[in-house]
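In this notebook, the sequence line spells out the residues, with the fold written below as integer tokens. This is how one looks.
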Amino acid sequence: MAESKVSLKLLIDTKTQRVLFAEADKTTVDFLFDILSLPVGTVVRLLSKQGMAGCLENLYKSVENLNETYIQPNQTKDTLLKPRSAFGVCSSSISLLSITDNEPSQKLFYKCHNAYCYYVAEDPRATCPGCGSTMSTNMTYVNPPPAVTEQNGRNDADGFVKGVVTYMVMDDLEVKPMSTISSIALLNKFCIKEVRSLEEKVVDLGMDEALMLLKTSLESKTVLTNIFLKKRENNLDAAWPLINSCRTFVIE
């Protein structure tokens, strides 16, 4: 299956080599807002291979390595290591930060065997407050019927924001609806005197960039610049020794 991606149109100040802001559609903004619904344990798990700064990774590994002997019988490690997002969160229609496990795709609920009890639990070991029985009877959550889709096949009722406008994403990930007036105000704020110093660049945000965005957002106030411009500089720095050796060869 092809990797999911979203696009951003960056407005770059070529003189200072920084991203002033980016134009984004509903899908991209839904993805950005969806980050706020990620449990801390999921964030640590996603960034474990990225070399996460701080001590949260040590906490995660402590739970991972803890012997089951020390864990309460009504608890499991997965409660902390593989937490679920809060039920009811409007997740985006495209998930760039998903972790593929053998986790259930549907949320499961449980009740007791008595038809006259109407209590529901998420844990099959829970006790029914009505009759005292174990709530182990499986009840599967049924998704609501899909809303009317647009011509492009995307369900515009999904996610968090409406898809009728273009959004502006700042370098520090501040998001707001875009307008001509707000764009001009920003150019004045950044003291842009010459329009020719500006460059538009469309970039793709795939899983690698999404992980980098998540990590950088915890460490920096210039997220878009660090991801899309610093990476280009690093690529040039890596290529410089080869370029230098070629120049030396030509001179000799």
